Amino acid sequence: MNPKIEKLIKQFAKLPRVGNRAARRMVLGLLQDKSGKIEKLIESLIDANENICACPVCGVLTDRNNEGCEYCRDMTRENGMLCIVRDLSDVWTLEKSGVFGGRYHILGGLLSGGAGVTPEDLNLSNLKNRIIDEHIVEIIFALPNTVEGKTTQQYIISVIGDTTLNVRFTELASGVPLGGDLDYLDDGTLTLAFGGRKSV
């Protein structure tokens, strides 16, 4: 294989949920395309790299020129509810389902001894201040129903579970299978899980 093509395939294969076979198909499709898709892809990647950044408040990816993301700027979301999720795809899933209308906080991962993910690797530094500043009364954990998800949830509760904050902690209820991610749940299941959330 041409070394340049092999290098490109390896880069694509490093993307989340993309294996070697899918990476080969994508690279070959782009290189053999004559309609200019590869130039448009390069242009879009450069534009995103230069102009997209994480919201300093919640972690949602947004335009670098904005002061905060669309969710943090939306005053109608000031309802005292904060939903903690693993990543941006979880926010998109919840928004698509329409089950939640409050604010979000993206952790950027989950605690994992095996993967070497520690509390310092997660977006937790401003969480306590957000609870105070935004008058949060309920924190909803919408994390994967896995060992890593539960460990992360318990760690956060132990860190910010100060009784002076007077915050209620809840998690999604039935409908989220063991080991399940929000990405794979349909809107009806998400609605059921949010509506029946329980205290933790």
Summarize the structure.
Helices cover 42% and strands 12% of the residues. By secondary structure, it is an alpha/beta fold. It has 2 domains: 3-53, RecR Domain 1 (Helicase, Ruva Protein, domain 3, Orthogonal Bundle), CATH 1.10.8.420; 74-199, Dna Topoisomerase Vi A Subunit, Chain: A, domain 2 (3-Layer(aba) Sandwich).
Topology:
Blueprint: H1 3-13, H2 20-32, H3 37-51, E1 52-54, E2 61-63, H4 70-73, E3 81-85, H5 88-97, E4 103-106, H6 127-133, E5 138-141, H7 147-160, E6 168-171, H8 187-195, E7 198-199
Parallel strand pairs: 3-4, 3-5, 5-6
Antiparallel strand pairs: 1-2, 6-7
Outline the structure in words.
This protein has 200 residues and is an alpha/beta fold. It contains 8 helices and 7 strands, in the order H-H-H-E-E-H-E-H-E-H-E-H-E-H-E. The chain has helices at residues 3-13, 20-32, 37-51, 70-73, 88-97, 127-133, 147-160, 187-195, and strands spanning 52-54, 61-63, 81-85, 103-106, 138-141, 168-171, 198-199. The strands form 2 sheets. The protein has a 5-stranded mixed beta sheet. Strands 1-2 form a two-stranded antiparallel sheet. Helix 1 crosses helix 2. The longest helix is centred in the first third of the chain and has 15 residues, at 37-51. It is elongated.
Features:
2 domains; 5-stranded mixed β-sheet; two-stranded antiparallel sheet; 7 strands
How much of the sequence is in beta strands?
A: 5-15%
The CATH class of the largest domain, by name, is Alpha Beta
CATH fold descriptor of the largest domain: Dna Topoisomerase Vi A Subunit, Chain: A, domain 2
- What general outline do the C-alpha atoms trace? elongated
How many β-strands, per DSSP? 7
Share of residues in helices: 40-55%
The total of helices stands at: 8
What's the overall average pLDDT, rounded?
A: 87
Give Rg in angstroms: 20 Å
How many domains? 2
Regions with little confidence, pLDDT below 50 for 5+ residues:
none
- Examine the secondary-structure arrangement and name the CATH architecture of the largest domain: 3-Layer(aba) Sandwich
Helix-strand sequence: HHHEEHEHEHEHEHE
Please give the order of strands in the largest beta sheet. Answer: 4-3-5-6-7
